[in-house]
Amino acid sequence: MKKWLISSCILLFSNALFAEEFNQFEIGKQKAKVCMTCHGVDGIATIDPYPNLRGQRASYLISALKDYKSRERTSGLAILMQQQADALTDQDMKDIAHYYSTLGSESHSKTE
Q1: 13 near 20, Cβ under 8 Å?
Q2: pTM metric for this prediction
Q3: Quick one: signal sequence residues (predicted)?
Q4: C-alpha angle 110/111/112, rounded to 5°?
Q5: How far apart (Å, rounded) are the C-alpha atoms in residues 74 and 89?
Q6: What DSSP character marks residue 34?
Q7: What is the pLDDT of residues 91-104, one digit of tens each?
Q8: What's 23-108's CATH class?
């Protein structure tokens, strides 16, 4: 009985985590619509100067977006990203970063 209870709790917990993960992925996908113009629908840039975001670490993406917003990144096409980052909240940045960091991973390959 005790093993069954533990197994049931683990299953419920893992299902809840998966649902939360899936929801954040979908929320991030919606928030990333404007990003897709330059960084591609699949996270692979459509134009050479723009970086690929697919599979990039979430912490790096969040840091980069914050740096654009605070004007710490100024080279290249930074002015375009500064304008985009200005419109984002911290939660938006987390959601978008989560989306791109998990894009193409096994857990989300069926949802793409």
Answers
A1: no
A2: 0.77
A3: 1-19
A4: 95
A5: 20
A6: T
A7: 999 999 999 999 98
A8: mainly alpha
